[in-house]
Amino acid sequence: MSIEQQLNLKFPIYWGDWPIEREFARYLIYKIVTHRPKNIVELGGGNSSLIILKTLDKLGIKEYNFISIDSDKNFIENTKNLLMAEGVYNEDNVSLLYAPIKDLKINGSFYKWYDKDELNFKFDKIDLLFIDGPIGSLCKNARYPAINVMRKFLKKGSVVIMHDANRPDEIEMVEMWKKEHSDIKRVFDVGNKRGGAEIIF
Fold first, then answer.
1. C-alpha angle 15-20-26 in degrees, rounded to nearest 5
2. Helix (H, G, I), strand (E, B) or coil at 131
3. 131 part of a folded domain
4. Per-residue CA distances from 136 to 2, 82, 104 (Å)
5. d(CA 53, CA 137)
6. Considering all CA atoms of the chain, what is the largest pairwise distance in Å, rounded to the nearest integer?
7. How much of the chain is helix, strand and coil, in % rounded to 5?
8. Which residues are CB-contacts of 177 (< 8 A; sequence separation ≥ 6)?
9. CATH code, 139
10. Are β-strands 128-131 and 159-163 bridged in parallel, bridged antiparallel, or unpaired?
11. What is the tally of structural domains in the chain?
């Protein structure tokens, strides 16, 4: 059965070279079904936003916070249209947040990352943090700031999932995070074509 059939989608998903792959999407569905996250933050939206929200909808989960962060206003609008077309855009639960790319200094190094001043959450714990942005070409280890900036929201039981984990930068980032955060309990290789990493706190 296709993912479109599993999630009762009205329209087919565009599976291109840059969105998440079908295999990774199935893994993401599995994590939502088994983990039942209530507070979800996504860095870089699109197909993954739809898959997460449709899975929550099919599970009958009504009380959740979903925040998708992106630096491209046009892409945010496209994602909104996608979610509306499938009937899962609800402003009470879903926030598509624009955060421009800015310079950010962490541990003496500069990164180009989302403007952290735009990231204000009304909860104190992230159950699921999905990292698929910003684009890796912005700078070396472009996605490294994610855990550092979100650190106060990552607590016991939090799950971090990162896409494109087979790339050299992402491999290095995972090792950096493991060294810097002693409360990371486990790192799991998802094993899809472009790679995925699951980090458990």
1. 95
2. strand
3. yes
4. 30, 24, 15
5. 28
6. 49
7. 35, 25, 40
8. 144, 147, 184, 199
9. 3.40.50.150
10. parallel
11. 1
